[in-house]
Amino acid sequence: MPDEPAPPLSLMIRGEKVGFGPLRRDLVPLYQRWINDLRVTRTLSVPCRPMTLEAETEWYTSALSARDTVYFTIYELETLRPIGNTSLHGIDEGNGIAEFGLLVGEPDVWGRGYGTE
What distance in Å separates the CA atoms of residue 94 and residue 84, rounded to the nearest whole number? Predict the structure, then answer.
């Protein structure tokens, strides 16, 4: 897959610093790197165990068909570089509630307000 060009960037939500777009198959290795970085996952409620590329690909495939969860890739708007993932879990449209999840996977952008925007 490395020789395939990246698909055109599609941002569904834009803030001042970050934008949210859909998950992308070509970014699965990047998602895997983030989930295997203990600095990134130390505050997440995920098991502390290595994630293989195959397992991350399975997660990606299941995320696409999730009924009560919506996932996004987070992009730094200045560079359009993917820097993390965010999601709404357990969406209850009738009551207008959901659980919010956030992972800023690129340590070099920590402390710039991207996670709080």
Answer: 29
Q: Which amino acid is at 74?
A: I
What's the distance, Cα to Cα, between the start and end of the chain in Å? Answer: 33
CA 48 remoteness from chain centre: 18
Residue 66 near residue 56 (C-beta atoms within 8 A): no
* Average pLDDT over the chain, rounded to an integer: 92
pLDDT digits (tens, 9 = 90+) for 83-96: 999 999 999 999 99
Partners of residue 89 on adjacent β-strands:
99
Alpha-carbon gap, residue 22 to 95, rounded angstroms:
25
pTM over 0.85: yes
